[in-house]
Structure formats: structure tokens, C-alpha cells
Amino acid sequence: MSKLLIVDDEFRIRELIKKYAQFEGHTVFEAENGLEAISMCRETQFDIIIMDIMMPQLNGFQACEKIREFSSTPIIMLSALGEEYDRIHGFELGIDDYVVKPFSPKELMMRISAVLKRSAKSDSALNDRFIYEGLCVDFSARTVEIDGERINMTPKEYDLFFFMVKNKGLALTRETLISKVWGYDFFGDDRTLDTHIKLLRKSLRSYANLIVTLRGVGYRFETN
Predict the structure, then answer these.
(1) d(Cα 3, Cα 93) in Å, to the nearest integer?
(2) Model's pTM, two decimal places?
(3) Which residue among 32, 83, 195, 219 is buried most deeply as judged by most CB within 10 Å?
(4) Main-chain dihedrals φ then ψ at residue 17, nearest 5 degrees
(5) What whole-number distance in Å separates Cα of residue 40 and Cα of residue 162?
(6) Torsion-angle region of 70 (φ positive above 0: left; ψ -120 to 50: alpha; else: beta)
(7) Burial label, 113 (beta-carbon count in 10 A; 0-12, 13-18, 19+)
(8) Across residues 33-47, what is the average pLDDT?
């Protein structure tokens, strides 16, 4: 199932969580302190992190802040600190849930499951985007950004570009593009397509070369 990292300086706590997590089918990794956790997160992509706060060398808050600089892996914070300030501080740092010690292992497993499900939904939403270097295409929001700047296109340019991106790497004939983007009842000619390709390339600026002309066939969107 999921790769789970347990970060706690107490061996018995790690063993307790490990026992229940493995029973649920998770692959478990362990770290004794925040510094070790950061190092492991740089080397391995975990699905979720269970992080204690009170640890030597680097506490959970500090470790979480460092991890968030390069990773969005979900984090559940464990702590004997039950003050509202600590919970708020944790959420401000980007944790996904907060469990106060002593805790029920079964409840922790349920929280892990809930966070993983939310994370899966978030990843699914990201799948509705196409990102290549500084080019970001959001199909749901119907937007195109280059280096963080929103690019304005005509409705038909969006339709054409989105269709090409979704069919990345495929040779798209002129007939296919016209029928799919303009409709089978389109009464114009090939020059309409060529004009929109020209406008699209202009809008894409430094990424214009991603639209490749296939002489005698049509066009292809490729990133290689």
C-alpha cells in the first residue's frame, strides 16, 4: 500500500505505530529525529509522515518547516502538547492533521487513511493539469500560464491547444483537428486551422516550438 515514515525519538512509540501500520498493509520506515527525517525525505518519496514534535537535535515543527521547502507529502503531527497554539502553529506550517498523546493506535490508523484519501483526491485534481517547465495548462480552470503569467487566448485557441495537449505525442491530421475543435459541420477551410496555429504559437512564446508541423499531415504537440 503506502510508504509511511514514522519520526519519533521514542522506540516504543515507533514500534507501536509500526505494528498497526504494517497490519494495515503499509510499508514502514523509521527516523529517530528531525534531521534524519529530512535526509530520508530528500532520498525517498513517502506517501505520509507521522511526526513527533518533542525530539532532540531538531523538533517536529522545525523538521516540518524544512520538509515543506521541497515536499508536499502529507504530515500528521504527534505531540503531548495539546495547546491550541501548538495545533495552529502546526497547521500554519502545512501539516495535515494533529494527534495528541496518548493516542489510540486504531484512531491514528483511521486518521492516516483519511489523510491518504484526501491526498489521493488532490493528486487526481492535479492530473487535470499539464505542466512542462514554466508552462502550466489547467484544463478545469481553462487557463494557460507561462512562468506564472496568465496567457490570454481566444476561446478557439484554448479549444485547439487543450485538444493538442491532451493528445500529446500523437500525429493529429488536419481533418481530425478541424472536426474535433470546430465540429463536423464546419464550412471553413484549412487556412482557418493554420491561422489559429500561428496565433497559438505566438501566444506560447518560447514554447511555440512544442507545436510541430507534420508536412502533408497536420500537427503534433510534443515536449521531447
Answers:
(1) 22
(2) 0.57
(3) 219
(4) -65, -40
(5) 38
(6) alpha
(7) middle
(8) 92
For residue 197, what is the domain's CATH number? 1.10.10.10
27's grid cell: 510499508
The residue segments making up the domain with residue 56 are: 3-125
Compute the radius of gyration of the chain from its Cα atoms: 24
Cell of 77: 503531527
d(CA 48, CA 113): 10
pLDDT > 90 in the chain, percent: 52
End-to-end CA distance of the chain: 33
CATH of the domain at 22: 3.40.50.2300
Contact 18, 5 (CB under 8 A): no
Considering only the C-alpha atoms of the chain, give the largest distance between any 2 of them, rounded to a whole number of Å: 74
